Amino acid sequence: MDNYEAFKGFLDNEKFKYDEKQLGNGDWLVRIPQKIQNDVVVNVIFLLSKFKIKVAILGIATLKEEDKKLALYNLFNKFNMEYAFFKMFMRPDGEICVDADFALELIKGEFRPRELMSFAAMALNAVGKVYPDIIKIQSA
User: Which of 63, 3, 59, 2 is CA-nearest to residue 31?
Assistant: First the structure.
């Protein structure tokens, strides 16, 4: 069973609501909406390929004001130092995201989807902790 089939089976078994799409290169994208603080919904994206899995959290917030970006970059630096497995950054359009690689080579034996979901939950928890600071900068 490949990584995608194992992950899909886990999601179905646990009754997760998700969307999926196969890419032209055979990789799979899986999107799972999740709530963080104040009922804000973000999208947890899993990119599953044969040899690697990427996890991204999209839709955390958007910041367009140039004068607020320095404070946000300082917050990103603090976050990225504290949570070394995850990288918080801002896309050119101002969307704040988190990106991470799930290291398949560290897993002994077969891929276990529950461990991947625990990894994503840690990322969501980290985002939830810094979210009030993002909103404070955004609304200043």
Answer: 59
- Phi first, then psi, for residue 82 (nearest 5°) are -75, -40
Q: How far apart are CA 140 and CA 138, in angstroms?
A: 6
Q: What is the pLDDT of residues 18-49, one digit of tens each?
A: 999 999 999 999 999 999 877 889 999 999 98
3-139 CATH pick, 3.40.50.410, 3.40.50.800, 3.30.1460.70, 2.170.190.11: 3.30.1460.70
Extents of the domains making up the chain: 3-139
Tokens 């009754």 — which residue? Answer: 15
Give the contacts of 18 (CB within 8 A, at least 6 positions apart): 11, 30, 31, 32
Tell me the per-residue pLDDT of 85-100, one tens digit each, with 9 for 90 and over: 899 999 999 999 999 9
Could you tell me the pTM of the whole model?
0.90
